[in-house]
Specification:
disordered N terminus; 3 domains; alpha/beta; 4-stranded mixed beta sheet
Amino acid sequence: MIIKQFLFVVLVFSLFKETTAQQVKVGDKLPAMNFKQVLGPEKEIDLKPNKYKLTILDFWAHGCGSCIASFPKVEKLQAMFGDSIQIILVNYESKDSTENLFEKRDWIKKPNVKMIVGDTLLHKRFAVVGVPHIIWLDEQLQIKYIARGTSLNAGNIRKFLKGEKLNSKEAKQMVVKTSLFEREYESDMQSFSYLARYNSDFRFRGGEWGSARSFTARGMTAIDLIRSAYAADGTVDWRRPWKTVLKIKNLDLYLKPDNLENPEDWLYNHSYVYQLVIPSGRESEKYEIMKRDLANHFPLKFYIDTIAMETLVLRKVGKEDKLKSKGGKPVNTFRKRNESAKGSIFEDKRRILKNQPFHYLLNGIRPLIEYDLEKPFVNDVAYTANVDVDFDGLTFDFFTLEALNEELMRYGLQLINEIRPVEVLVIKDVD
């Protein structure tokens, strides 16, 4: 009798576990839940009805760069809307691992919002297969939207709190397609391309995904697609502002305007899903076919040209070698901190290259010039030995050309403005 009762209890417990992990969909209600695996000042986090007008579950992972980059925005939104909403970050990595992430990578600032760690239950319930993954819950914990990361913005939160509907596309579950063409006709295929307006709940997956025979993009603007078509060998980054010359009257159709409260609406109207697949043996034609596709669809012309442009050139000053390394264990902290880390106190206030190749120095200063100053950079210093270089961290984190040149002069180097021919990508309206 005791054995039968024990087996019955085990059976009921197993069924309970299966039920609690059952996948949910838009329209379902979540039961009240309590989570003790949390990170932050809270000892536990409750999901209860009638407590917040809006609860947002923001699923993320340690390896998701866009998730981590969104932390300052998430913190700002929570502060902006206060006690009327709660935003809860949810990840499956353990508490120790997550604490270690913030301790070891001190440039990643932990956002001041609730955080559930080591989660399995919510991940299973919402069938999370990719992050960021955003769940919108109303006051009764009813699931209103299962959305992508772009949905999380101030404009959508205001709409929700007013009782207005978000973009209807956000309410759909993600659809996964295994192929965009029929396999039986593949041997006769010359090329296959698919171009559609961006839809965050749709993505395709199949054997051609990511192969040398294909190109796949989601959420790219026409300008980004054209830049990608010219980046075939990966040696030129056409995203650098000065590498693309835009001769377009209505730029708002192609470049997202600044300070949009709801950038999601613009994204749906002006960005695209694109896939190109070509037969085996014709891989070298892939990007030329892509250019033809884009030229056929968009009222734009695009081509490579060379123009004279103000360029910052690195030159050697004097005959003395002030760079040569004294040897020892190699060290490299020669980098710029990201925006969320600025103003924090770092252990490495100095940015150091010790016994490192000269090109590490170039790699450190190139992005400061090409992205911060939006100017081309050319190196005219031929140097093959390893170097020792020690810069003040403020030179990177609060960059000015004057401060950088002061540091370089200590090592017999100088950045000089010159007019040089520069290869650019021209994109213009069709006449």
